[in-house]
Amino acid sequence: MIQKGYAVTLADNLSNSREEVVDAIQHITGIRPAFFCFDLCDREKMKSFFATYPADAIIHFAAYKAVGESVEQPLKYYRNNLLSLLNILECYLETGGNHFLFSSSCSVYGHCDKLPITEDSPLPKAESPYGNTKQISEEILSDTCKVNPTLNTIALRYFNPAGAHASGEIGEYPLSPPNNLVPVITQTAAGLRKSLTVFGDNYNTSDGTCIRDYIHVVDIAKAHVAALERLLQKKNKKNYEVFNLGTGKGNTVMEAIHAFEKATGVKVNYEMGKRREGDVEKVYADTSLAKRELGWKSELSLEEIMRSAWNWEMKLAEKKI
C-alpha cells in the first residue's frame, strides 16, 4: 500500500511478531509507517486510537491462526479472533468509516467434496475452532453490511500463504514455534530442527499426504492492493464480497518438500507421523472470480516460494551471527 502512495498506520500487540518489521518496511519502501503497540481486544485503546487516527480504510489481519493450537485451546481463539474483530469494526464504524478488508481463510470451507473450491461452495461445520472463528467473522461482517449499506467490505479467503519478500527483509518470524509447513521446512533444512513431521501418509492423494494450495505472500499482498482499490474506487458490485486467493493448483506435502529441495539444493530430514486433528485432506482454489473482478492472479511458483523462504531463513541466520 505504501508503494501505491497510501499513508499506512500499523497497530499490533506484538504477541507473535517483532517490531523490527517496521524497520524492514522502511528499508524496502523508503517510508516508515506509523506503528502503535496495543491489543485490539482492548476496546478503550481501540476507540482512542481511531479518535486520534481516523482511517479511510481498514485491513484487518490480526488473528491467531494455528489449526492444531486452536483445537487444544479453543477459548483462546474465540476470544482473540472474534473480540478483536468486534472492537475494530465497532470503533471504525463510530468514526464513519466505510471501507473494510478482512483476512479470511480457506478453512471456512472445511472438507469440500468438489474441487477446485469456488466462493459459492457450501460452508459446512468447520474442522477446527480456528476455521470456525473465520466462519463466524464472515457472518459478523455480512450481517453488519446488511444493516449498514454504506459499509463496503471484502473478505479475502487465503489458501496457504508462504514465502518471503525477495529482498530477504520481511518473512515469517513468529515468536512461537511455527505451525505452517514452509517455515518448518526451512528451519529443518537450517538445522534448527532435527526433523520435520509429515502429519499423515494415508490420505486419498497421490502420495498419501495432504494437498494444499500454496500461494506466495507477495501475490497475496498484490491482491490486497487490488481489493482495497476496488473499495476506494467504488467498483465493488455488492457491499459485502468474498474472493479466494490461491493459485488454483494443489500440491501434496511431499511435493512441497521436494520443491524446496529442488529450488535450494538442500535436503530436508523428515519423518512420517499420525494425522493431525483438524486437518483437511484436500484444499485448492478456483480463483477465476478474483481474476475477473479484481484483475488479479497469482504469478509466483511453488519453487519461488521455497527459494524466497530459504533466502529469508539464511538472512535470519546472518542476523543472529
In short:
With 321 residues, the protein is α/β, with parallel strands linked by helices. It has helices at residues 20-29, 43-52, 67-72, 74-94, 129-147, 181-189, 217-232, 253-264, 288-294, 302-320, and strands at 9-12, 34-37, 58-60, 99-105, 152-158, 160-162, 196-199, 211-212, 214-216, 240-245, 251-252, 270-273.
CATH class: Alpha Beta
Q: What's the overall geometry?
A: globular
Oligomer: single chain
Q: Based on the structure given, which CATH architecture is correct?
A: 3-Layer(aba) Sandwich
Integer tally of domains = 1
Distance between the termini: 32 Å
Strand order of the largest sheet: 3-4-5-10
Low-confidence stretches at least 5 residues in length (pLDDT < 50)?
none
Largest sheet: 4 strands, parallel
Q: What sequence of helices (H) and strands (E) makes up the elements? A: EHEHEHHEHEEHEEEHEEHEHH
Q: Report the mean per-residue pLDDT as an integer.
A: 94
CATH homologous superfamily designation: NAD(P)-binding Rossmann-like Domain
Radius of gyration: 19 Å
Question: Would you report the number of β strands?
Answer: 12
What fraction of residues sit in β-strands?
15-25%
Structural class: alpha/beta
